[in-house]
Here is the input.
Amino acid sequence: MMERITATSLRFQARMAGVVALITTAAGFAAIVSGNLVVIDDASATAHNILTHQALFRLAVVGDVISILYVVYTLLLFNLFSAVNRDLSLLAAFFSLVGCGIGALNVIFELAPLVILGGAQSLTAFNTQQLQALALMFLKFHGQVYDLALVLFGSYNILIGYLIFRSTFMPRIVGVLLAFAGFCYLINSFATFLAPGFAAHLVPYILVPGLSELVVALWFVAIGVNVERWKRQAAVAGVTGMGSMHVQQESV
Here is the structure.
C-alpha cells in the first residue's frame, strides 16, 4: 500500500511540475509579443504599436504574470532533486526563486507604458513626444531587468541540468541539453550588458537551446521519473520529504 502511495506521490510531483512548466511558457509568448511591438530606437513607432495592439500587449503582461507560477515548479523540482544532492538542489531553488521575484517586479515596468500612453490626467504636463519617450524608457528598463533575471534562470538551468545528469531516474542527455541552455542564457545576458551590438546578432539563435526546457516539461508530463531508482538514490542521500518517507522507514 505504502509502495503505491510513494510511487503515486512521486509521479504526481513530476507530472505537476511538467504541467506548471508548460503553463509558464506564457513568458515566451510575452517575450515574442514585446519583441514584435517594441522598436528599440523609435519611441513613436513603439507607442503606435502598443496602442494599436493594446489587447495583445495586455495579454503579454498577463503571460508574464502567469509565469510567476515558476515558483511552484521550482519547489517541486527542489523536492525531486534533493534525492541527488540536497545542497545543490537548494542552491538551484534559491537562484530560481530570486529570479521569480525579480520577474514579478519587472511586470511593473511592462505595465507602465500602458499608464503613460493611456492619457492619465497626472501626466498632462508632458507632451506626446515626452510621453512616448518615457514609455520606451520603461520598456528598456524591462528588457534590462529581464536579462538580469535570465542570469539567475540560466544558473538554475545549469544546476538542474547537472542534477539530472547525476540522477539515475532521468536520461542524462536531458540534463546536458538543459545545462547547455543555461550557459546560452548567461552568454546572452552578459553579452547584452557588455556588448549590446554584438548581443543583437546572437538573438534569437542563442535562445533556441532554451527549447530544452520544453523537453524537460514534456518528459515530466509523459514519463515522470523512475520511482525505484529515485527511492534508491534518496535512500543513499538520506533525503526526507514528500515521497521519501517510506524509503527511510525501510532503511530503519
